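Hey all, sorry for the wall of text incoming. These are the two entities for the joint prediction.
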Amino acid sequence: MFSFIAKRIVATIPVMGVVALFVFLMLRLSPGDPASVIAGDYATAADIERIREQLGLSDPIVVQFGNWIWQLMRADLGISIFSNLPVTTLIAQRLEPTLMLSLTTLTFSVLVAVPLGALAAWKAGTWIDRAVMIFAVAGFSLPVFVLGYALIYEFSLALQWLPVQGYKSPFDGLLPFLRHIILPTVTLSVIFIALFARITRASVLEVLEEDYIRTARAKGQTERKVLLGHALRNAAVPIVTVIGLGIALLIGGVVVTESVYNIPGLGRLVVDAILKRDYPIIQGLILMFSFVYILVNLMIDIVYTLIDPRIRY
Amino acid sequence: MFRSTRRALLFAAALAVPAMVLAGPQPAAAEKVLRVIPHADLKNIDPIWTTAYITRNHGYMVYDTLFAMDANLKPQPQMVDTWSVSDDQLTWTFKLRDGLKWHDGAPVTAADCVASLNRWGKRDGMGQALMNVMDSLSAADDKTIVMKLKQPYGLVLESIGKISSNVPFMMPKRFAETDPFEQVTDMIGSGPFKFSKDEWVPGSKVVYLKNEDYVPRSEPPSYAAGGKVVKVDRVEWVYFPDQTTAMNALINNEVDYFEQPANDLAPILANSPGIVVEVNDPVGNMGFARFNHLLPPFDNVKVRRAAMAAMKQEDYLLAAVGLPEYFSTCYSVFPCGTPLESTAGSEIVKSAGVEEGKKLLAESGYDGTPVVIMQPTDIPVLSAFSLVTAEKLRKIGMKVDMQAMDWSTLTSRRAKRDPVKDGGWNIFHTWWIGADVLNPMAIAYSGDPAKGWFGWPSDADLERARTAFPLAKNVAEQKVLATKVQDRLYAIGSHGNLGAFFTPVAYRDNVKGLIKSPVQFFWNISVE
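and here's what came out:
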């Protein structure tokens, strides 16, 4: 197992290298450049050129890439072109809100979706099953921002129970944190609940047809034990896979929710950086997201061995 | 009794700890906070390095200026106490006010101001023009700045008291000596607020604290001039990328002031209890359709004027702004209601219409070359302007190639002088805040293709009038030259004038003391 983990970690290096090259080239070959944004409306072409030189954007692409890789090798993601702050500082400022939102969303989604999906499979073909599936289809179809605005209208503006926007750290008080995180969590969870519930239903449904389930029932196991002890555990591999993918999606994909609830997270940071062509931030964040994807996949592989003893590396 | 009291205390303490954890830290009871939604996020903090308006507004919080423009568009002393000019108009002497201090406690000196003016003069257009006629700039003593000119120059005070980007903000010499193409590394100013750098989250939040050492002037505030009396302890700028969320936060009393709500949200806000919506900028913004004078078909003045003649302002303003209370037609290139407003040459814009455009295009010899319009889809006003122009040009018989892109791509591409096949362009749209185009010195009105603005018009008469403007001996002479500039701009079809529009502000009705101005200031405002 340890050699497997070690091999996987070593394998991340070439993957990250390819990602770094791809991101770098994609940015440099796409139109627009930060110098013209910085120079603003009053600038002449000469001003823009001077700024490009100052930022090192006039150097040959190979030189620019070499400089960046040299920085990365020293664990330095560079300095934001606009704010003049280290990219690591900017990421650190935004990491907590995104991680907290991801954590609450994932917890809430799993707690709701897995029982819901298992229930739907257990009661397959009944009104319960249909109700869960209708919810799942609706969850997939409802745009996040529509749900977000609807929840804000009802719970913030009409009932005045919760704030419209913002983020409070749990380290500054649990109650303000919960008040601010509830609506974004519910908004973001709906699609994940739909996804996880469907996968759980399909997996459990498949497992419930297996011979060992029939054997368990024939031996007199209660339905509860059959479902929880035999069916759900054996159906867990695809569920865990999808939950793992959900984690990766959450880290980089919460931008709409962050915008609707004005949460200063990583999703907004990357979108703002793209709009301004702040290359060091974009490059740093995409590398980080790639690393998270790789890490999550590794974790999923490890979790497989815990839930299915047949899987060994 | 003792035992029960001790138990009660222990019980109370046991309850209090989780309650504190749950509730979080409480703000200081007496602290007055103004919570603002600014028009953009503050990404960089050096107002000389960038011309971004949000950084200019930040500059006004942290820094102070030698002179400042008042509501009559006249420069008034701000950091300067007394000033004089020699009879030959060549030597200007400025004496600083008493009690000026940097935020680190050091006194403001004339040497700091000299270094600041030098840095500004390398980046700003009006600054560069002033530096071109400057013989020397020096500190005679700690409080006296002496400026010697090579020739009389009529815009000395207007330049060092200009209200918009780049504003000649004063900073300590050690920062002012930074290369103007590099950002300063710290925010030490002498302005009415201190920048709380530790609380700055770029793209999200900026915090300013009242500068207790600031000594405001005694005059009432008027635009950037007059006394900068701070009436809150703390100003928080919280940037909202989503306009609807910003509106909801204002309605829910989570913020106090919304600097630039979208025009279509203004009626909703105006109908919400406890919220005031009004236009705070009396000068407004000027819509601008820029032709590329270097490339066909707009290298032909007749084609440019045909396009101009089709650009009926009302159509643009209705499409982009919508509500009539937030726009007005203005056929002067200098903002209407300001001293240099003129009607010279404006007949072509005033009587604009498709038929007039068709007629002029027929006379122009237009050969069917497609017109590339760069449409920035991420800026609704400019996107709408682009759509209207496309429709107008098609109607008068031109071929149009509309190319959608984001603003960053546009700003990069507009600097290209190459042919269209190599990434060139024919038209883009923008707007200027009125305060930036008050006189012919605005780079938007340049007629010099080598040093001028994107689009690169070339007209010697225009350039002669522009360069003569700051040398004019009096206001009457300035007006004559400004009129000449406007006449030439319309004659050569420099750009399409799309009219004036105004962006409202919205705030809770307990916010008092807003200063009406083209720039948003946060002194004199109280939260009651």
